[in-house]
Structures are given as C-alpha cells and as structure tokens.
Design a protein that fits this description.
The chain has 6 helices and no strands. It is mainly alpha-helical and 136 residues long. It has one domain. Helix 1 packs across helix 2, helix 2 crosses helix 3 and helix 2 crosses helix 6. The protein starts with a helix and ends with a helix.
C-alpha cells in the first residue's frame, strides 16, 4: 500500500507539472498532496477522506495535513483540475495503446447537481485509471 501511495503522489505531482499547474506559495499542503489524499481515500478507504487524512498524517506521508474543513474546500476547488487530469491521463493511455478496440463499461449514476457527488465519482474514476495503468 505504501508503494502505491508514493506512486500516486509522484504521478499526481508529475501530471500537475506537465500541465503547467501553479499554486499559491502560501499553501501548507500542495495540490498534489490534496489530490493524493483524495485518490488514497478512493482507492483504500472506500472514499472516506477522514480515514485517508488520518492515515497519511499518522504515517508521516503528509506531515502538514489540513483539517477536514480546509481539506474539503481545497478538494472542491480542485474539482475542474481533477477532470482535466483525468482527461490528460486518458489521452496518455490512449496514445500508448496500440489497439484500436476499446471495452466500455458503465454503471447507473443518479442524476443530481451535487458537486460533492461528482467530485467523488471523478476521484474514483481517476483512481481506477491510475490503478489500471499500474496493472498493465
């Protein structure tokens, strides 16, 4: 699990650098760390951000972990960035895939305007995409 968490952080940080993302110099926790925490929550803790925050802080992986409220605000602010990263990862995986056949799978999603729900769906999809990249 530790190796996967480190890989998730490294990939998130590299992707942010690749798209030229810049962040405020006053932040205590980088955007890559916020994204890593969300992806770790999606991958290992069933989407529970609190458990992921506590785990990463207690194990010293992210020593300057934000409080729950601030973390939630930062994560919601990064929602569109997560969608861009998902698109970027998809383009990379598509470019390295030599096959022209794709398998699509879908699942029913309730229709709503809740950005929190959409954010969780986006982090689950990005976590699954990164996991698929590690397996292949």
């Amino acid at each position: 699990m530790l190796t996967e968490i480190i890989a998730i952080y490294a990939i998130s940080d590299d992707l942010l650098k690749a798209i030229g993302h810049s962040e405020d110099l006053r932040t205590q926790m980088s955007d890559a760390e916020v994204i890593t925490t969300a992806l770790v929550a999606a991958r290992f803790f069933g989407g529970n951000h609190h458990l992921a925050r506590v785990y990463l802080w207690e194990h010293g992986l992210i020593p300057k972990m934000l409080k729950a409220s601030r973390f939630s605000r930062r994560l919601h602010r990064l929602f569109l960035l997560l969608l861009d990263l998902f698109d970027f990862v998809g383009m990379i995986l598509k470019s390295v895939n030599e096959q022209t056949e794709y398998l699509l799978d879908s699942f029913p999603v309730p229709v709503c305007d809740n950005n929190g729900f959409l954010l969780k769906v986006a982090t689950f999809i990005l976590a699954f995409t990164l996991e698929s990249a590690f397996i292949n």
